Task: structure prediction
Amino acid sequence: MRVEETELIAAGVERAIRRVIPVAELGLILDNIGINRNAINLATGGVATLNAADADLVVQLAPTRRTSTFEYVRRLRATLPTEFPGVTFFFLPADIVNQVLNLGLPAPIDVQVVGQDKRADYDVAVRLAAELRRIPGAVDVRVQQVVNMPEFLFSVDRIRAQQVGLTQRQVASNLLISLSSSGQTAPNFWLNPQNGVSYSVAVRTPLSKDQRAGRAD
Result:
């Protein structure tokens, strides 16, 4: 889904969290929606978002709370999947020691399936996850990889493209800029002389024209 749709779901999840956790025991909720294109943030951040359909919510409890974090996690595990069917929820370890022991992985236990056939590997992972869910005490069992993302398939006549002076690389680069902005192919930054902050500058096709082009194809 588009990041705008993910934002609406994240807002609904926030409302559900505020119903489960009393106002007096809740500090703040911070949302990170979609994937950040800034290489520095990707390298130093700890979020588990992979694409525009992902959101990472950080919940901070008040210092004066009476209920433990584990109890609220237990309640949210029972509430969120019921209110938001079709959405996958999992809770990352909040303790810094657990995060270090995970070696940067988004789960304390990580099972990897390796093979030459990606479709078969994914099917094995799905069946394996179903078996792991039956283990008493296992929670948040999921397949991390997303394989059903929407995509555009373009067929380029290279002979005709050459006749107008276009290479396959130029066509691919222009399509990538048009559909996802220049932030991936040619990152540009503007330094504000007033506050000394560098801002990322990206160029892309307007959404209205982008949608019409997608329907035409």
The beta strands are 26-33, 55-61, 188-191, 198-201.
